[in-house]
Amino acid sequence: MILTRRAFTAALSLTGLGLLAGFSPLHLIDGAMAQSASDVAKPQSLPDMALGPATSPVTITEYASMTCGHCANFNETVFPKIKSEYIDSGKIRYVFREFPLDIKAAAGSMLARCIAKDDAPKFFAVIDLLFRQQNDWVVKNTTETLTRIGKQAGLTQAQVEDCLKDQALLDKIAADQKFAADVLKVQSTPTFFINGEMLKGEQSFEEFAKRINSMLKS
What we know:
Blueprint: H1 5-15, H2 37-41, E1 49-51, E2 58-64, H3 69-77, H4 79-87, E3 92-98, H5 103-116, H6 120-132, H7 134-139, H8 142-152, H9 157-164, H10 167-182, E4 191-194, E5 197-200, H11 205-217
Parallel strand pairs: 2-3
Antiparallel strand pairs: 1-3, 2-4, 4-5
């Protein structure tokens, strides 16, 4: 579901996210896979949050929504194995990009960016926390729970409020999502690109290992 600005704004009062800025209109377009690996490789409006050396021969790029249950399950069960086996050893680079499917996902993404600033390891720690507490902040009072998480990470009440009202940040997230939809043909979450090759949906560690090892050998 891609929300128009009008629908996004109208929904704010229903979800406890009255502070959140307006969401730009986006449209998913059906089509072929990514035009090229270079289209995936270059960040657009926001700087990439990545773990692992930029010189690694294999780069995995994940597009995820913070309210996506499959994304949360992947984060809990598969990503730690990828990190231990391939990221921590410097064999691959792992990039996380936002693809919010609803207003709460957009709020979570904004909070993660505000907390982490340019600190990629801190960003990954925050999204891990958000995924693991997904039921709390998605199902219950979103603003209250996100505020608590923000305060735990060192933000003040005012800083959390400012973050959720940051129209420039939201516009960048929306622009990057639009690029992913229009150019890379991302239509759902999670969607992965391994050296530009699209892999849709939640996958097993074994599937990732097979593809990564093949690319490392070549």
